[in-house]
Structures are given as structure tokens and as C-alpha cells.
């Protein structure tokens, strides 16, 4: 490990996060198919036994399905467990947190993708250790980069960053990285991103697929010269073929897609041969047939979140089956293209774009909100539909100020309290919808 990586490791350990032990375990499992199978089964068994002993909801569930006999977990009966939904988690919220979880560096995180309803998930330091180890593995095995030596530029959600200050600066230095706001895509902002790209000269660039695509279009349309990174990593929303082509043309390198979720971390990553490999040492992934056009429903069990286990969780996405053997030589299983996950942009009157995730981030952490939808009706009018109780006027005013900060001072916000937020014909909620963007 580089000296900077050693300092990063010490800083993480000081905060209770150890990724070196998980990384060693991953290296021992992922190089051999038999060791991978045996290792992942042992991790699943450990999670199930913990859930049975420490999580009230699962204790009752496992008893009812005969998953535990004489204190032993019968992994062969895993498939008999019912699928877990967001609605079930909300209905039994207090019963999903492990006893003693607060003493393991536990914190709360919130979902907020393109579809669904906000979900609050407890995580702990052990989960973070495996998350970092998984990232190190992805960089080394699939991107052919040393994570700590590589200079990394990320287009991220600023609402998930620490505030500006010495702690953030030190963290970025230790991580050999820089972050840019991936949600604001005005002409001035994207011009600034190109300047930062050329001055920082990163080895890897990563961001949401649609952000990278819009920036790629900006670069190509203006014939700009940009520093050529070694790889680009896209995530969070679906990477269509035309988007991949545009990004690769603009940045002059290959795009690797990454699939994950707030609830489950990194689930699968694209190798050099173009296959999406499941990080099965971190999550158990099932593909359940039944979707239209050959897709299968993705059901995931994160193996290392002992604070709040999610077992056979319906994440809300679908994927096509993967190849049985990949030419890259990895023994990790594969899935095909993930279907869905698109998010609208909101369009400013000056033509600038604001990613829909900006508005999701304003609302998703409010626990009073059960469901919401933000609709851009025109350049200066945004309607927010909420199913909620107890939202203070001061909180709503603060949200309106942040909306106007992104969309312009003339933008008017209309709140509408509803019993049910409208669903798509497929039964999904859309967090954001721009009538202006869809008319472009």
C-alpha cells in the first residue's frame, strides 16, 4: 500500500472502520471458484445466524419458516424466505435494527434514486470496511489501477459531501481525489468542470451516467481539448449505448459501468470484457424470472450490514441474465444489462440543466415524508406533491430557497399534500418529473 494509502487506513481505523481485513478476505476468495462459493456461503450463514439472534423481525420470521434448527442455520432453506419489500421494512421499522447496533459505529442513510419511496437504512463501521475493500478490488481487478495511487475526479451529489473545511480537504488529499457538483449542468458550470479536469489531470473520472453524458456533449459540441483519463466510471442511472459512445468519444477512454444502491452498496461492476460481475463476497444476488422481454427481478442480500440486515430485498430493478463464463477470467458471477433507473433533468430558462437528484436530496431525509414527487411544470413553476404530516412552514421555506438557488429567483414552488403520490403504469413512483425536459 502507498504511504498515502497507509495514512488513509490509519484515519479510517481511528474512526472505527477497518477495510484491510475484508480486503484480505476478498483476495482469498475471489481468485478461486470453489473458495468463492464456500466463502460466500459462510458469510451468508453468519449473517442469517446474527439476524436470527439479534433482529426481532427475523427471529420470528426464521422460526416460522424453519430456517434455524437447534441453533444452526439451514442455508438450504434460504429460498423459502419471503421477499422483503420497502413497505414491510416501514411497517416493522423498529424490528429491523439489531440489538446493540448503536455500539458499532452505527449511522443512518437514506435512499433516493429515480424511482420508489425514501427508505431509511441503518449501517455500521463493519459495513463501511467491506464497502471500501470492494472499491479497492474493483479498481485493481477491473480498472487495472491502484486505488490510492490513482488520481480520482468525481462528479457527485454535493448533499452527501462533508462541508468545506480542513477535514474534507484532508480526506480528499488522503484519498488522492477531488469532487465536483454533479447536479448543476449550466454552461458556466460545465466550463468550470473542464478547467478542473485539465488542471487536476485525473487517472479516473466517475459520476452519474447522465451527468457524464451531458458533459461529454458539451465537450464535443465545442470541440474542447480535455485531459484524457485512463478510465471513466459511470453509475447510479442506466448507461445507454448512445451515452457510452458519447462519453468515450469526449474523454478518449473506455467507460466501465458500476451498479449499486444506497441500501446495498456496490453490487456489480463492469470488467474490461464488458461483463457486469457481481461482487458476491459483498452481496448475494438472485435473478428471479418473470419480467417482460427476458428481464429478471433483482433480489439482493447485503452480506455485511449487521446493523440492519436486508435479506432477500426487492431493490426495484431488473436485469437480463449474464454470461456463464467471462473472457476476463474472473470467477465472479455476472448479470446482464440492468434495466430502468433514469432520472429527469430540470431545465432552467437559460438552457442550463439541474439533475433531478438535486431535488430528491432536498426532501428524502425528512422522516415526516412518506412519499413525494417533484414536477417541473414550466421554467418558473415547480409543484411538490407530498404524502406527509407535520412539515413545518420554516422547513418548507428553506426547501423553496434551495429550489430558487438552482432554478433562478423567479421560480415559484407550489406544495400539494396528497393521500397518494401518482404511480407510473408499471406501478412505480417517480421522485422527479420534468414536463419541460420531456418536451425538448
The global form is: globular
Q: What do the pLDDT scores average to?
A: 88
Rg value: 22 Å
> Would you identify the regions where 5 or more consecutive residues have pLDDT less than 50?
none
CATH class placement of the largest domain:
Alpha Beta
Number of helices: 13
Q: What class, by secondary structure content?
A: alpha/beta
By DSSP, the count of extended strands is 22
* CATH-derived topology of the largest domain: Rossmann fold
How much strand? 25-35%
Write down the domain tally. Answer: 2
Instruction: Describe the strand arrangement of the main beta sheet, using strand numbers.
Output: 6-5-8-9-10-11-12-16-15-14-13
Major β-sheet profile: 11 strands, mixed
What is the annotated CATH architecture of the largest domain? 3-Layer(aba) Sandwich
CATH homology superfamily of the largest domain: ANL, N-terminal domain
End-to-end separation in angstroms reads 49 Å
Oligomer: single chain
In helices, the fraction of residues equals: 25-40%
Secondary structure blueprint with pairings:
Layout: H1 3-14, H2 20-29, H3 33-54, H4 56-65, E1 68-69, E2 72-73, H5 86-91, E3 107-110, E4 120-123, H6 125-141, E5 152-156, H7 166-174, E6 177-181, E7 184-185, H8 187-200, E8 204-208, H9 209-222, E9 231-235, H10 241-251, E10 254-261, E11 265-270, E12 276-278, E13 283-289, E14 296-302, E15 313-321, E16 334-339, E17 345-347, E18 353-355, H11 356-363, E19 369-378, E20 381-388, H12 393-407, E21 412-417, E22 432-434, H13 435-438
Parallel strand pairs: 5-6, 5-8, 8-9, 9-10, 19-22, 20-21
Antiparallel strand pairs: 1-2, 3-4, 7-18, 10-11, 11-12, 12-16, 13-14, 14-15, 15-16, 17-18, 19-20
